[in-house]
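Need fresh eyes. Consider my entry:
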Amino acid sequence: MLISNENLDLVFKGFKTIYTESFDATQSYKDTLAMTVSSNTSEEQYGWLGQFPDLREWVGDRQIKELAAHGFSIKNKKFESTVKVKRDDISDDKVGIYKPMVQEMGRVTKIHPDKQLFSLLSSGFSTTCFDGQNFFDTDHPYARTEMVTESVSNMQAGTESPWFLLDLSKAMKPMIWQEREKYEFQSITDPHDSRVFMTDDYVYGIRARVNCGFGLWQLAFGSKQELTAANYAAARQQMAAFAGDRGQKLGITPTHLVVPATLEARARTLLLSDQIEGSSNIWKGTADLIVTPWLS
């Protein structure tokens, strides 16, 4: 192949097509787990977290809710993945040998948010959220009245492999995926570029500025107890009782059970079997199952 700007552009377009097809074909839970927020700067503030809109009968003047100044923010991080392609391979029409590599770039880019989000979920027992408590904690502050503040738990303490119940049915989510600059497929093929001149290689890569953070703890429950029907039932019951300030019921209904691969068999038995230990399984079909290797 003649090395020219036109031909290099065709190679780039071919690589990008392979990358895009692989990206689109790869499963991701990002849009299920998190609400995506566009970012306009290096860091975004989420002082409004914890405010739940609700309707009341209009008697007298409107009652205006003031947004609590929690000071919670998410800083964007920069990520990249870069590979090199030998100029001689393009000149010798060996572009096809790079197809698996470019396909893999598409796959790992698509699952990158999953890895970040599930890792964040795992860290929820020791990572703070908007109210200053760990995301999974025993004493989230709850203002039952203007004068009375109580503690609410969204976790079960223990030493077993953690599992998680999530309500992912609402516009607001338990996690936030923040995008400053989306994943972009790029290349450096200019013969006047100093690196290309010195190495006789072309460079192709992915670049993004993104990050994730915790959203509403009320939409999630983390357990380090054994995954049993009894503990699963207790977690669902606690989530259903979650209320907003002034006793406003939030209507939380868990929709997904998230487990590591080590708990897949137990989770499938709990959610898919007709019977458990000879008794009718009343929890069959009560949540969708997500099994992921990214829970640390």
User: Anything to note?
Assistant: The CA atoms of residues 139 and 151 lie 4 Å apart.
